[in-house]
Amino acid sequence: MAIAKAERLMNLALCLLGTRRPLSKRELRGSIEAYLEAGSDDAFNRMFERDKDDLRELGLIIETVENLDGDTGYLARRDSNRLPPITLDAEEAAALGLAAKVWQQARLAGAASGALQKLRAAGMPEAEDAYEVHSALEPRIPVHEAAFEPLMLACRDRRPVTFDYRKGNAAKPEQRQVEPWTLECWRGHWYLAGWDRDRGAERVFRLSRITGRVRSRAGTFTTEVPDVVTVRETVESWAGETATRTALIRLRTGAGYPLRSRAVSVRELGNGWDELEIPYGHGLDAWLVEFGPDVVVQEPADLRADVVDRLRAVAKD
């Protein structure tokens, strides 16, 4: 259905851009196959008005002209819809080239490469690739989860989705109905922020805990999408970035360097163990579980209980 709509929008745009005079609804209906298949005049009118609004939201300037007979016609003048020449200096070109290298995910890599080729064909200056020639380090955003691409498209198109999700302390997954807002990467893991319809509240989901297929649902969002900065703060808070207190843990000597880098204090206990005081925020229990037997939570008690529950759930699997 999404492909059919995209084809219909493309045909309408070509008709409006290719005409030298305004075209009436009747003429447009006779020129576009999807409109000919509309069951009634009312169905066609609703479809046409939606398509016209969608094209305008995409940036196409559509003029509405009334002729001497009182009929309304539509056209999109080429000079009004022509982009200005693209001018980039060497630093801007280098920034775009570096940004294109960040993505490894196949779909985004192809789009980024194609965009760069078009910009270079339009005269964008070639920039020396310092990251390829002079450095062994190169920025990457890894994407291994199968749920990433369908969720990325659902966020872009504002489409509700359903998927099976297994919480860190749960033995079995459960179905969630979500209005996806955005995807955020934190500490090498991808998270989805959105509105959980079943719970009637915003929630954050780690993509690695989504099982099975992500399925699109019909309909529109029932809540307003917050500002992107607000959503990013929500993801950081749920993933453990925002710390409200500290936790005391025992860590095996020579292990857990990411934990050590965040420690407020470190004290040697002997016998191959150290005691660390680290910031404690939402999501710390899930992070600590990743270090397995190298970490023992001492306090607070609720954090210790959460870690034990997660370990038991993993053991059951």
Give a summary of the structure in a few sentences.
The protein has 317 residues and is of the alpha+beta class. The chain has helices at 2-18, 25-31, 33-36, 41-57, 90-102, 106-121, 130-133, 148-157, 228-239, 257-262, 284-289, 301-316; strands spanning 23-24, 63-66, 72-75, 161-165, 174-186, 189-196, 201-206, 210-216, 243-252, 265-270, 273-281, 295-299.
Radius of gyration: 27 Å
**Residue share in β-strands:** 15-25%
SS-based structural class?
alpha+beta
- Strand element count: 12
Which runs of at least 5 residues are low in confidence (pLDDT < 50)?
A: 130-137
Helix count, DSSP H or I runs of 4 or more residues: 12
The whole-number mean of residue pLDDT values reads: 80
How far do the termini sit from each other?
39 Å
Strand order across the largest sheet: 7-6-5-4-8
Q: Outline the biggest β-sheet.
A: 5 strands, antiparallel
Structural shape:
elongated
Q: What helical percentage do the residues reach?
A: 40-55%
- The helix/strand order is HEHHHEEHHHHEEEEEHEHEEHEH
